[in-house]
Amino acid sequence: MNAKKHAVPEELLSGLLADYKKPEDLIGENGLLKQLTKLLVEKALDAELSEHLGHGKNEPVANEVGNTRNGKSRKTLKGEFGELPIEIPRDRHGTFEPQLIPKHQTRWAGAGGKEPIAAVAACQTSARKRLVRPSRPREVSTKRTVGGNGTV
Fold first, then answer.
1. Alpha-carbon gap, residue 79 to 57, rounded angstroms
2. What is the reported pTM?
């Protein structure tokens, strides 16, 4: 894969992270990663439908059978990242078979069998725990007991 093909402009990243203050802003329930994943998945599904139909949205019908878009269905994806409600585009003839998220699938493992949000979240969660709960020295007992009677 060509790395430059999917290069993300620095200005875009700066704009997306302009309001970032804490890890929850990125990986929280309504964090940026979840929002971006939803938008990217829905955009990719729209592109898949355009490819299937042979024409883009609001363009003249380019297939012989006259198949066109027919609204969207709602689906909730589930994974280690929690739940992600998305909208799946439909076609009039019901022949569209999404590749990114197949029909009847609700558990999503992302590309390559890995859950991208979960992987990032796992790294960020451990960092957040270190930030939220500073380590405290633990008290270690020097007494040993044998049995339940309290004798050493």
1. 30
2. 0.67
